Amino acid sequence: MELSAKKVDLLITGIGELATAEGDALAGGAALGRVVRISDAAIAIEGERIVAVGAEAEVRAGFEAEVTLDASGKLVIPGLIDAHTHPVFAGTREDEFEMRLSGKSYVEIAAAGGGIASSVRGVRESSKDALIAQLLVHLDRFLALGSTTVEAKTGYGLTLKDEMKCLEAIREAGEQHPVELIPTFLGAHDYPQEFKDRKPDYVDLLIEEMLPAVAESGLAEYADIFTESHVFGIQDSRRIMTRASELGLRLRLHVDQLTPLGGAELAAELGADSADHLECISEEGIAALGEAGVVPMLCPLVPLFIGQKEEAPGRAMIDAGLAPAVATDFNPGSCYVQSMPEALSWAALRYGMSAAECLVAGTLNAACSLRRGDYLGTLEVGKQADVIITDLPRLEHITYELGRSPVSVVIKRGRVVYERGGAA
Ligand SMILES: [Zn+2]
User: Fold this and answer.
1) Dihedral angle sign, alpha carbons of residues 164, 199, 282, 399
2) Ligand 1: distance of its center to the CA of 133 in Å?
């Protein structure tokens, strides 16, 4: 007796190589490179979920669909997850890029009124609708580059009103666009100009007014901070983030980027979900992150972009058993790059990470850093159907081919949401 195949919404067939991490937990140390690779594979999708993954002959025997997508013998991977971006801003800062090339440092540019302060002026002068329109343009580009989930920080408003405007822009853009957004309140990005001579007052404002209002609004899932010697020091960072945590916000921290301040140790102490940048992390910091299970969020494009000589000790962290994720840190000042494939290539080149390690860092570990490993980050039965069909022959090309997008088709929540026209 022949059993009839179950009808599903979508079959992806003709997959030359399917590559994915497995499970819903962080993969660290040797497990970081553990990737399942299936040749001649297929995926069956029902609604928003994956219902079968495996050899094409087996999947076809069990499932049939009205719509079949042919992957043309190419590499298929999970949707990429960019877990560190600052996409809500108005205007660009190419002039500062030029200033840096002529020898000015990031801190010198900030002291001259450039840097974050310049983006703050732009956001304050913009309407919410203008911010949404610009954010939607960025989201189109993320999608075309294979990012199906993006963490989105505020941090260029720096008043309660303007930060709320940015959080509302994230919420509304996310409702209009297939890219899944995770909102982060970064009111502690810098001191606004009007508080430059009374910095402790801004810390009090964050603690007493801004954080409670943001938590109450339900518009932010995370709080973040720029812990750095010229911005928020360790003591103020501890106060601000402890308050955020008490109010029910989860934590991510920018730490040890430009100076070794002990920010990684603070992220570990606070039980943050991620510690981001880490170009100047100490050995004690690496050990602390490992013990606390904090995800090191590596942003390898940033030192390149700002001409910083220090780089995060990515390989040393992996050797110590840590489970890093890789992100772009897309923002108008220190990294105007939205491409996760590019970030993964630079992680490979700068930290000596294999293509398999980079894939896990840009999918499962990134999902776990956002507490979403239960439904995102891998191509497995039961997970959300976020799938990238590339034009690459095999996994190693994801890091090997720099400077172009390998993305042919993007499927988000079981629906085709992007198809590239013509050759890239
Ligand atoms: Zn950042």
Assistant:
1) positive
2) 22
Class in CATH terms, 81-369: alpha beta
How far is the centre of ligand 1, averaged over its atoms, from the C-alpha of 187 (Å)?
Answer: 12
pTM: 0.97
* Residue in 253, 171, 221, 269 with CA at minimum distance from that of residue 372: 221
157 Cα to the center of ligand 1, angstroms: 15
Task: Compute, in angstroms, the gap from residue 86 CA to the centroid of ligand 1.
Answer: 6
Sheet of 274-277, strands arranged across = 80-82, 147-153, 180-188, 222-225, 250-255, 274-277, 295-298, 325-326
pLDDT average per 10 residues of sequence, the chain (424 residues): 82 98 98 98 98 98 95 98 98 89 83 85 97 98 98 98 98 98 98 96 98 98 96 98 98 96 98 98 98 98 94 98 98 96 98 98 98 98 98 98 96 97 63
Which amino acid, 184? T
Distance 420 CA to ligand 1 centre (A): 29
Instruction: Report the pLDDT value the prediction gives residue 219, as an integer from 0 to 100.
Output: 98
H or E element, residue 73: none
**CATH ID of 6-78+375-419, from 3.40.50.10840, 2.30.40.10, 3.90.550.10, 3.55.40.20:** 2.30.40.10
CA diameter of the chain: 82
Domain ranges of the chain: 6-78+375-419, 81-369
Residue 113 has a pLDDT of 75
- Ligand 1: distance of its center to the CA of 83 in Å? 10
